[in-house]
């Protein structure tokens, strides 16, 4: 009877009940948070779409999602309920390391901003910073004015206020923020290459790297309660960035050479001087520094977007052991797979298959998310694969029995069926129905 009475209550009365009963509020919020995570993962792993659905849509359109609007409605103007929700998000992020909780923290704040709930947003110390960052992400640009605003927020944190860094770092650990910051940094690095400038002369680049460092340290900062802004390591600036710029120059030289008439091309020189393994400092920093790994991921996406087969093959293997557990891991893999699908013709070449499968996917396949990204890739490119590859790839892509969800198993069954159907129509393919 009490449950029925509670269910019939108006939202205003429920807010009063929730305010004094955290577990009751938790019971209401918990299914919404689970649904939010499920929705994000559905987009990341959706094999039926070959498009990069994860980063599509504006920030404002994303926060119109039903879960966000329901949470905003439940909180209303109640600061205590907002604080409870943020505490749930911090706790869940700490327990799971799932960065989608960081996205939800930003999207919920901005949904309340859209509703002009001044009672709540005025007491969140991250509001103006999140609002400014949201505008930059929407416009896909950090101009000088906005960069000064963002830097001003960070510089204004005084002794005794350091705890706000924990919430700011969550805002910056959101994959949409990491993508924007690393993409913007790559734009500036490309610009410095074009004008033959040095990365250390670019003040906005330093700010972007500073924000990236803060976002990538979010989990550790909240876990240790040691609220100190991480310092940018010198090797990142004086070793990694020049190495990255040298790779970009190589890409430009190869591209220019390919446009020349065949008789004027310096093919041998290009292969020797501009197509070999990346500089040692590139490898070393990617393995030691999460910021370098973030920029390396974005650079790899840049080469794939240009459909630069040589560029992709040079650097993809470097990432294999250095993205596991990185806050940008799944968003990167989702985008990479989308771009590799657009290069599907290249999978007819054994050297490209070696780089993508043997040197990248196979070296970090023992986790379920990697299986699901690989299955999404195979779903779209399997018709181009050399026959000898098919059965090995199906064996490797099969989800492990322990810990695999129904979604992964169902996806594998559908993939296997699709590949067998294609094989039945193509007499040149090996039989894959033998295991």
What is the chain-wise order of helices and strands? HHHHHHHHHHHHHHHHHHHHHHHH
Compute the number of helices. 24
Mean pLDDT: 90
Number of DSSP-assigned strands: 0
Low-confidence stretches: none
User: β content, as a range?
Assistant: under 5%
Q: How large is the radius of gyration?
A: 24 Å
Let me know the largest β-sheet: none
Sum up the overall morphology in one term.
Answer: globular
Distance between the termini: 56 Å
Helix/strand class:
mainly alpha
Q: What report would you give on this structure?
A:
With 435 residues, this protein is an all-alpha fold. The chain has 24 helices and no strands. Helix 5 packs across helix 7 and helix 15 packs parallel to helix 18. The chain is globular, with a radius of gyration of 24 Å. The model has no long low-confidence stretch (mean pLDDT 90).
């Amino acid at each position: 009877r009490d449950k029925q009475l509670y269910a019939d209550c108006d939202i205003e009365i429920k807010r009063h009940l929730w305010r004094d009963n955290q577990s009751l509020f938790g019971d209401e919020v918990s299914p919404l948070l689970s649904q939010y995570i499920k929705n994000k993962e559905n987009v990341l792993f959706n094999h039926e779409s070959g498009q990069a659905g994860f980063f599509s849509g504006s920030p404002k359109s994303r926060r119109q999602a039903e879960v966000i609007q329901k949470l905003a409605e439940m909180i209303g103007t109640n600061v205590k309920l907002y604080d409870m929700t943020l505490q749930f998000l911090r706790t869940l992020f700490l327990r799971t390391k799932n960065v989608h909780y960081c996205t939800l923290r930003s999207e919920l704040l901005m949904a309340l901003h859209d509703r002009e709930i001044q009672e709540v947003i005025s007491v969140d110390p991250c509001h103006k910073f999140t609002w400014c960052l949201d505008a930059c992400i929407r416009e896909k640009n950090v101009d000088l004015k906005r960069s000064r605003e963002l830097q001003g927020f960070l510089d204004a944190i005084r002794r005794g206020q350091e705890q706000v860094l924990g919430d700011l770092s969550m805002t910056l650990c959101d994959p949409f923020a990491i993508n924007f910051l690393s993409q913007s940094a790559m734009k500036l690095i490309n610009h410095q290459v074009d004008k033959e400038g040095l990365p250390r002369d670019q003040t906005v680049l330093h700010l972007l790297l500073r924000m990236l460092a803060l976002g990538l340290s979010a989990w550790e900062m909240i876990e240790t309660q040691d609220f100190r802004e991480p310092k940018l390591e010198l090797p990142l600036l004086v070793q990694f960035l020049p190495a990255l710029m040298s790779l970009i120059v190589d890409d430009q030289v190869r591209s220019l050479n390919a446009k020349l008439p065949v008789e004027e091309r310096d093919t041998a020189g290009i292969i020797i001087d501009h197509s070999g393994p990346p500089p040692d400092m590139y490898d070393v920093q990617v393995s030691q520094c999460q910021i370098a790994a973030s920029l390396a991921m974005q650079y790899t996406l840049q080469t794939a977007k240009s459909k630069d087969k040589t560029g992709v093959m040079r650097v993809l293997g470097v990432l294999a052991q250095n993205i596991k557990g990185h806050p940008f891991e799944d968003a990167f893999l989702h985008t990479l797979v989308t771009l590799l699908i657009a290069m599907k013709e290249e999978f007819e070449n054994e050297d490209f298959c070696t780089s993508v499968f043997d040197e990248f996917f196979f070296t970090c396949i023992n986790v379920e998310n990697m299986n699901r990204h690989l299955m999404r890739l195979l779903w779209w490119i399997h018709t181009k694969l050399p026959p000898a590859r098919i059965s090995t790839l199906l064996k490797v892509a099969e989800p492990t029995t322990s810990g695999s969800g129904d979604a992964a198993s169902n996806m594998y069954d559908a993939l296997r069926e699709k590949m067998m159907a294609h094989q039945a129509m193509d007499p040149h393919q090996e039989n894959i129905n033998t295991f």
